[in-house]
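Sequence in, structure out.
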Amino acid sequence: MALLPFLFLLVVYAVSADEDAFIGVNVGTALSDMPSPTQVVALLKAQNIRHVRLYDADQAMLLALANTGIRVSVSVPNEQLLGIGQSNATAANWVARNVIVHVPATNITAIAVGSEVLTTIPNAAPVLVSALKFIHSALVASNLDGQIKVSTPHSSSIILDSFPPSQAFFNRTWDPVMVSLLKFLQSTGSYLMLNVYPYYDYMQSNGVIPLDYALFRPLPPNKEAVDANTLLHYTNVFDAVVDAAYFAMSYLNFTNIPIVVTESGWPSEGDSNEPYATIDNANTYNSNLIRHVLNNSGTPKHPGIAVSTYIYELYNEDLRTGPVSEKKWGLFDANGVPVYVLHLTGAGTVLANDTTNQTFCVSKEGVDPKMLQAALDWACGPGKVDCSPLLQGQPCYEPDNVVAHSTYAFNAYFQEMDKSPGTCDFKGVATITTTDPSYGSCRFPGRYYSKLLNQIFLINIVPYFLIFHLNIFLSFFSLLVF
C-alpha cells in the first residue's frame, strides 16, 4: 500500500476571538513496535498535520516536535492527578519540567489535566479543579497563560438525556465540580474538552440510531432528528452530542464557553459482534467529520462556529486490551502505511490527497458469492455502471467469475461517484484498496471516461479516426462541463 499524503492543512475559521478551528490527531503509544519520536514527527510533517494531542508530556517527543511549528496539547496522566491536585508546588514542578523547558521551541498550546476523570477515577473528582487551578497558576507565574490553555477532557456520558439536546444536562452528581470547572474555564478563556464517539452511541442504541445518522451520511428531511423544543434539525450524532453539551452548560448558566472535541473517530476492524467496525465505515466517518469541521458548518445551535476536533487516532495500537476494535482506531499502521486513504475530493482545500487516482474499490475476500452477485447485478443495473467490458470477448471478461466481475463493477461505480464516502460498500461486500487491480488489457483507471478510452486503444476495435473524433467530442464536452 503506497503512502499517500493526507495533507492535513490548517484551515482558519473563527471559534472565538482566540481560537481557530482545526483538525488534529491524538498520538497514542500502545504499540509493540512504536516508532521513534523522530519517526512520528516525520510522519506528522509528511502529512502536514499541524495539531497533535499527547497523552502525557514525553520529553523525547516534545524535543522532536521542537521547531516544527506543530501545535501540541500535552496531558497530565490520571495517575499524577491526585498529587498535582493536592499540591501547588507539585503542579509548579510539573509545569517547569514538562512545559517551561520546552517552550517556545515546542509550540505547546494546551494542557489536558487528566482524562475522563469523573467517569474513570471519580475518587479524584474533589481535586480535579484544584489541579487545573494549580497548573494555571504555574503558567501565570511564567507568563505563559495567554499562550497555553488548561482544561480536562470529559466523556460525553456525563451528559444525561442527550436527546433532544435542549433537554440535556450534566449528571447532577457532578454539579458542584462542573460549576467550579466551568467558572474556571470562563475566567481563563479556556474551552470545554469533550470526547465524542458516535460509534459507541450507535452500538449501544440497539438499532434506534440509524447508521447513516452516525456516519454523517446524507439523510432525507423526514429522517432527520428534530428537537421538538427548539425545532432544530439534526443530521448526525456528532452535532447532537456537541449541542447537548452546549445546552447542559447553559442549564448551569454558562453560555459563552466554546467546545473542543479532544477525541472522535471510528474503528476500522472489530470482533464478530462488532460488524460496523469496518474500514469503509471508519473512512466514511472520519472523512465526513473532517469535511464537517473544516467547512465551518457548525452545529444547529451554533451554525457557522466549527468545533475543533482531534481524530482518534494516529496509529493502530495493538497493545490495547479489550475487543479488537480497541486496537483499530488508527489512520496509520506502525510503519507509517495508511490503514485507508481519506476521501475528501470536492471538499475544497482540506486534508487528503485523493486526486492521484490511486484508490480503488474491490470485492472483499471470503464473502458470500450470492451477495456479490446481487451487488454486481445492482451495479450493472440500477447503479448504471457500463458493464459492457465484462461481456464475452471484451478485455475484462476473463477471469469469468463473480469476484473479478464485481470488482470491476464496484470500482467503476466508486470512480463515477467521485470516490464519495459510502460508495464502496455494497452492503459490506466491497472494500477500498490502494493496490491497482488492473490486469492484462483490463484497466482500472481513476476516471471512468479515461477507462473507456484506454480500453478502446488497448483492444484496437475502433478505427483511429473514431478515436480522433471521440477525443474532440470529449474536449468539447469538458469545456461545457468545466
